[in-house]
TrEMBL record:
Residues 50-174, 198-421 form the DUF7481 domain. It comes from Myxococcus landrumensis. This is DUF7481 domain-containing protein. InterPro entries: DUF7481. It comes from the Bacteria.
Length: 488
């Protein structure tokens, strides 16, 4: 399955460059150049149709920024997924229960062949379930809710044992109904909209007139590519998607010193292997041809030692790196500012003379990327996004009074801000922002709750490769740009 996500940056990876930017505030051409005889504006990257409606965040300065899609007929949020027998893109409601198909889970029969759903959530007739195959290359299928099961059901364990169990109090079990009929979800096709110097840009076009950016294609290698910083410290469109395996030696390695990355893929045989960018100011990603498969991988423990992993996810295949492919052979992208709305700029990247991809928002007053998130009062604000994040559970003292944030970068100049999860509001996900304090090298403590007791403050291990910081003064939420979210 392939999901097309919106939110921050329209499905393109961004590696922040260190060079200058340029403004492109011409209202007659605020977006990328298009096919001969026309242009594509910012609004075209996220466009409502007659049924699929864009949820966007707007500001008083005229900014319109994507959030998510809504199916106005089904009255549900939806995401674009490759699905069904035809493998087309459909805008499918989220939050579905999964029907097992041979693996662990709940079943109707004693041989554990007919998967069912057991849930504590109320299920309405308008909800749909996803039925997945365990094999590669098989798209999910969707079924209506079937009959409720009031007798015992069967559960299949990870060892393959199938046993009868009663349905627990407060839970309900359902058989899947018929597969959903054609037209239940809106279908989209992918079409090429731009081309320039080694790349083409493709959009999804919904049958109802909705549209969204889909991907950039490297025409020389016939692969999707994502914009990120390459090993020559330039932004380039590097291989991504189904043709590409990813790797980072800190996560998985092919050697017992955890210095040579293992590249993993979940389906098929990848053609390229790409390292993760280590940090924003250091060397960028390297691209290799995919090497030989490996069956034993290694990883770094909490104490920093390198040990063999006892097992790997069953759907992951790992590879060594083959020959490195020169960074200069990939299409270069230039960081640029596409359009300004008050103190916020839409920042993106350009390739060739025409292609421009909007990618992120930049707060010119704080001089930092920002993203719309809820503040403690529930209002949408463009909070500074940061490599330093505070969960609200890590502290610099054994009384758990002085919180710390952590960053997964070690050599890059740290951000000046900390984005913090507001734990004082447990009923909703809200945020606070702080100026960064001093680097913290001492013992780290964690606040944990056991059962129904009060939180306990306990010493915890430092995460290898992470740097900890104290929190400075809070940035008032009211000083950040206010956004209004609506479904068009």
């Amino acid at each position: 399955m392939r999901c097309i996500y919106t939110g921050l940056v329209l499905a393109v990876l961004w590696g922040t460059g260190c060079g200058g930017t340029k403004d492109s505030d011409d209202d007659n051409n605020p977006g990328p150049g298009g096919e001969p005889g026309g242009t594509i504006n910012l609004a075209d990257f996220y466009k409502s149709g007659s049924r699929i409606k864009a949820q966007v965040t707007t500001t008083t300065d005229g900014l319109r920024w994507p959030d998510e899609w809504h199916d106005s007929k089904l009255k549900k949020p939806c995401t674009w997924e490759t699905a069904g027998a035809d493998g087309a893109l459909y805008c499918v409601p989220g939050g579905m229960e999964y029907i097992p198909n041979g693996g662990s889970g709940y079943y109707f029969d004693a041989s554990c062949t007919e998967g069912i759903v057991v849930t504590s959530e109320p299920v309405a007739a308008t909800d749909f379930f996803v039925k997945r195959s365990t094999g590669c290359g098989v798209n999910p299928r969707y079924h209506t809710v079937g009959a409720e099961i009031t007798t015992s059901v069967y559960a299949k364990s990870s060892s393959g044992t199938c046993s009868s169990i009663p349905v627990s109090t407060g839970f309900k079990a359902y058989r899947p109904g018929p597969e959903v009929a054609a037209g239940t979800f809106v279908r989209a096709t992918v079409k090429q909209k731009q081309t320039d110097k080694g790349v083409t840009v493709h959009f999804m076009e919904g049958e109802d007139g909705s549209a969204q950016f889909h991907h950039v294609q490297d025409t020389a290698r016939n692969t999707e590519c994502a914009i990120q910083k390459a090993s020559d410290n330039k932004l380039r469109c590097l291989p991504s998607g189904a043709t590409t395996a990813s790797g980072n030696a800190a996560i998985a390695s092919v050697n017992s010193t955890c210095t040579e990355p293992a590249f993993y893929s979940t389906c098929g045989t990848p053609e390229f292997a790409v390292t993760f960018e280590q940090d924003r100011c250091g060397p960028g990603a390297k691209v290799y041809a995919t090497g030989a498969k490996v069956t034993q991988i290694y990883g770094t423990t909490g104490t920093g030692s390198c040990q063999a992993h006892p097992q790997t996810p069953p759907n992951f295949t790992y590879y060594r790196a083959g020959a490195e492919i020169a960074a200069a052979s990939f299409v270069e992208a230039k960081e640029l500012d596409i359009k300004t709305f008050g103190r916020l700029k839409v920042r993106g990247a350009g390739m060739g003379d025409k292609v421009q991809i909007p990618m992120m928002l930049h707060d010119t007053q704080l001089n930092t990327p920002c993203a719309f998130m809820k503040d403690s009062a529930g209002a949408k604000r463009c909070f500074p996004t940061s490599s330093i994040f505070s969960t609200g559970t890590l502290f610099a003292d054994d009384a758990c009074k002085n919180p710390v944030g952590l960053a997964n970068t070690t050599t890059c100049t740290p951000d000046r801000y900390v984005l913090a999860n507001d734990v004082s509001n447990p009923s909703d996900t809200t945020y606070r922002a702080y100026n960064v304090g001093q680097q913290f090298n001492g013992t780290v403590y964690v606040s944990m709750v056991f059962g129904t007791g009060a939180p306990r403050c306990m010493q915890t291990e430092r995460i290898p490769g992470s740097t900890y910081y104290t929190l400075g003064s809070e940035i008032a939420a009211a000083s950040l740009v206010l956004g209004t979210t609506k479904v068009e």
